[in-house]
Write a structure and sequence with these properties.
The complex is a heterodimer of chains A (309) and B (130). Chain A is built from 14 helices and no strands. Chain A has 309 residues and is mostly helical. In chain A, helix 2 packs antiparallel against helix 3 and helix 12 packs antiparallel against helix 13. Chain A is flat and about 55 Å long. Chain A starts with 19 loop residues before the first helix and ends with a helix. The relative contact order of chain A is 0.11. Helices cover 75% and strands 3% of the residues of chain B. Chain B contains four helices and two strands, in the order ααααββ. In chain B, a hairpin with a 3-residue loop joins strand 1 and strand 2. In chain B, helix 2 runs antiparallel to helix 3. The longest helix of chain B has 32 residues. The radius of gyration of chain B is 20 Å and the shape is elongated. The relative contact order of chain B is 0.08. Classes of the chains: A mainly alpha (309), B mainly alpha (130). At the A-B interface, helix 1, helix 2, helix 3 and helix 5 of A face helix 1 and helix 4 of B.
């Protein structure tokens, strides 16, 4: 901890110095933006319609639920966050927000978001949101993260639920299409996160989190990245074949999928030194672009279809 | 602009507003003008009432901020942060009330407010009182 030059006080702030921005940072705004985007896509792609006011409320509740689970994750992981370069500047390790405040904030927002979605939209969506928050906090954060290298594979499900919740907000149920949207993000998460952990593995090693590169080594991680990419890309293209995506979706998902696979094989091939890290970083960044592109095209296609209809 | 930069800009907003009280007054006036037009166009139905409730909410919030600014002059940084948090909580709760109001109108229909308060023989609606 000393090498990071951080004075971490995770037990609680001595002075009440946290401001509104610190609480906002607790909600992991970048993750929230991805959640909003994928949930919106699920909502627009779903058959049927929802009143714009209820649609807005659904998106707001889903994003706040995601933010709440982020706050609870930061509360639980404050001890290891303080020791990791990537997370040391989070509000709790910096001493800006006390752990107790983060717990209260996350718990209240979790309950409020679920109740709002359930009462104002429908209880299928509310129940799915509750399950998502519970899965992220209890299954991923508290159970899997510090125990198994498969943490990100199973825990990735939590990040994959938002489009299903969005879909359920409109239809009141779950269908093959929404499960496919779930699968896209579920299978995207391992190569995405393992690419990051390849060049951040010292961080995880220092705090004893059994990420795959720490436990099985970089070579096995690179092999797993290729395997999951081979699974992920066909699934990413498949919405076209069940009528969820159109021709432009097929084109974008195929072309970018080929690039994704090439980068994954590059990660497997180039293993040494700075170039190895750079290749992993390239895959990590491209994976974000790919996911945004997939959902973006789906979203645009559905909007255009509705306008033309 | 990244989300961090956006958050930083948002943090500066209260200070920016504090130096420009005319912005608060202008926003309040504008909100009431819009509400007045909405009521004139729609009458006192759900939409018109929604505009009026919004106008009252914004006025009360901006008023609270103005009072808090006045009271907290010369106070410590900690107190001012506490004040900002209190205002954020008040705004969030107020927005939640509005959101539930809007959702009620959407789900139950605009005529939800067009019903008699007292039904002869049945007493006050919803109260169980006769």
């Amino acid at each position: 901890m000393a090498d990071l030059g951080i004075q971490a006080d995770i037990s609680g702030t001595r002075e009440n110095i946290s401001d509104v921005g610190d609480f906002f940072a607790l909600m992991k705004p970048r993750v929230m933006s991805l959640v909003v985007f994928t949930a919106l896509t699920g909502m627009i792609a779903a058959p049927g319609s929802i009143h714009p006011v209820l649609g807005f409320i659904a998106i707001l509740a889903i994003s706040i639920g995601a933010g709440a689970s982020g706050a609870l994750n930061m509360w639980y992981d404050a001890d290891i966050d303080a020791k990791m370069q990537r997370t040391a500047a989070r509000p709790i390790p910096r001493g800006r927000v006390s752990a107790d405040d983060a717990l209260a904030f996350g718990s209240f927002l979790s309950a409020a978001s679920v109740l709002t979605l359930g009462l104002l939209v429908n209880w299928t969506a509310g129940g799915l949101l509750a399950f998502t928050i519970g899965f992220y906090v209890f299954v991923y954060t508290m159970w899997l993260k510090r125990r198994t290298p498969q943490n990100i594979v199973i825990g990735g499900a939590a990040g994959a639920f938002p489009p299903m919740v969005g879909w359920a907000a409109v239809t009141g149920g779950v269908s093959v299409e929404s499960v496919l949207l779930f699968l896209i993000i579920f299978l995207w998460t391992p190569p995405h996160f393992w690419a990051l952990s390849l060049y951040r593995c010292r961080d995880y090693e220092r705090v004893g989190v059994p990420m795959l590169p720490v436990v099985a080594g970089p070579a096995e991680t690179r092999r797993q990245i290729v395997l999951y990419s081979l699974l992920f890309v066909p699934v990413a293209i498949s919405p076209y074949f069940i009528g969820l995506g159109g021709l432009s979706y097929l084109a974008v998902s195929s072309i970018l999928g080929a690039v994704f696979l090439k980068l994954a094989f590059d990660v497997r091939r180039i293993t040494e030194g700075r170039e190895g890290d750079a290749t992993a970083k390239k895959l990590f960044l491209f994976s974000i672009l790919y996911l945004f592109a997939l959902f973006g095209v789906l979203l645009v296609e559905k909007i255009v279809m509705r306008v033309m209809a | 602009m990244s989300s961090v930069e956006a958050a930083e800009k948002l943090k500066q907003l209260p200070a920016w507003l504090k130096e420009r009280p005319w912005v608060r007054n202008a926003v309040t006036t504008l909100v009431w003008v819009v509400a007045a037009f909405a009521v004139q166009k729609n009458g006192y139905n759900a939409l018109g009432i929604a505009f009026l409730v919004t106008a009252v909410f914004i006025t009360v919030m901006l008023g609270l901020i103005a009072i808090a600014d006045y009271v907290s002059r010369g106070q410590s940084d900690t107190t001012q942060r506490q004040r900002a948090r209190n205002i954020a909580i008040a705004v969030a709760l107020g927005a939640m009330v509005l959101m539930f109001y809007a959702a009620t109108i959407v789900r139950m229909g605009g005529n939800v407010v067009n019903r008699p308060l007292v039904i002869p023989g049945a007493g006050i609606v919803g109260s169980g009182l006769r």
